[in-house]
Amino acid sequence: MKKKIYMAGCGGMLGEAFYNVFSFNYELKCTDIDVNEAWLSKLDFRNMEEYFKDVDCFKPDYLFHIGAYTDLEYCETNQNDAYNTNSKSVENAVIISNKLNIPIIYISTAGIFDGSKNTFDESDLPNPTSCYAKSKYQGELFVQKNSSKHLICRAGWMMGGGPNKDKKFIQKVIKQIKDGKKELFIVNDKAGTPTYTYDFANNLKLLLENNIWGLFNMVCSGFISRFDVAKELLSILNLEKEIKINEVDSNYWKKEYFVSRPDSECLINKKLNKLKMNIMRDWKVCLKEYISSNYKDYLT
User: Class of the 3-162+193-223+267-278 domain?
Assistant: First the structure.
């Protein structure tokens, strides 16, 4: 008999990868406030009573708490909503998992670090600076302190979801290309580690199936800037001669992206490496796979 996983907040780019990776070997129930797939049912995990009722009815072996508001500007200007969604709902999930005596899997972020170092591993103490980062770290801490059995995985700059679900950097650049822009203005003063949603889901699955618990950084290899990503993207699309990239600093986009980002969000998968369970690939390999799988017809 297949084990069962309840996936809450599964309608986004990471949830799509989780569904596709885990659906072969597990019985899933996937919910979200935005029902944008046939395999999703509606649930607002901020509603404790409904959340508990739905999970309890499914009788899962694991509870995945995936969803969050990740737009920094939205979180900063809607702080109550951000904390209810990114922190309070996590408390709900921990209480539910403890009541049902099942492990909780929580997704955290590299954004909880302040950028005061070039790289961060699991031994470094987070120091979140934005509302988004603080709300996510609050959730992470609650899981660590109150869950009897948990797996916390920190992602970096997320890649995945395709044109319909990707709200991150890749889709924003590709949209400019689709709109006919011949010049791009890309920041070069922030560093990070990309994270391909499918690598992330597969590596988490590896830990789960080996009964490994705790806190893990889980990012692709490569410490890069947004400019590096844009340059590689144009190369993959064979557009490097047609479109010019201008390097700019973060002040160029200050009006649109007014929330300060850490200078570095580069994570090291120290614990995965120690366990010899790091199957996250090079970011360039993942970017090429992502683009070829999702954008073949989008730009034509």
Answer: alpha beta
